[in-house]
Design a protein that fits this description.
Helix content: under 10%
CATH architecture: Sandwich
Order of helices and strands: HEEEEEEEEE
CATH superfamily: Immunoglobulins
CATH topology: Immunoglobulin-like
Strand content: 25-35%
Number of strands: 9
Distance between the termini: 63 Å
Largest sheet: 5 strands, antiparallel
Length: 150
């Protein structure tokens, strides 16, 4: 019976060094790691890309994923997206609560435009996006609106 040969680590002199000069050791995979753990796990909520944009083949429309973190609407029962693209309707585009408590919604918007929007929490409280492309002053509401550029 043949014994399995384990990979030997390179001698310390051959290991690459970081900017400070410390040796960087390669990460070795443990034999006890389960296959499920090897699958790419979804990053934590703070590491996720937020306002994702996916353009159509003809670049006429853009699928935008809106996101509101738990911290912005901790005790919220419902959150909706209101904006220039839906005539500022308070209930036309309700968001879905994720397992981690964040709210998310994907909408198809016209490409090549700046769309103003805000989140409506429980139908009464207005909240700006924390990751908008920019913010513009609105005279009617006397506040800033979030803007996404498609």
């Amino acid at each position: 019976m043949k014994k399995k040969q384990l990979k030997k680590e390179r001698p310390a002199a051959e290991l690459p060094r970081d900017a400070v000069g410390k040796r960087i050791r390669p990460l070795l995979r443990s034999r006890t790691v389960k296959k499920k753990q090897l699958k790419k796990e979804r990053p934590a909520a703070d590491d996720q890309p937020r306002m994702e944009r996916k353009y159509s083949k003809d670049n006429a429309s853009c699928r935008v994923t809106f996101w509101l973190p738990t911290q912005a609407a901790r005790d919220a029962m419902s959150v909706a997206v209101a904006g220039s693209f839906n005539d500022w309707s308070l209930d036309r585009h309700p968001m879905k609560r994720l397992k981690n408590g964040d709210f998310q919604l994907a909408l198809t918007l016209e490409a090549g435009k700046e769309h103003e929007f805000r989140f409506v929490v429980d139908g009464v409280r207005w909240e700006n996006s924390w990751i908008a492309d920019k913010y513009v002053w609105n005279e009617h509401a006397q506040c800033e609106n979030s803007v996404i550029v498609t």
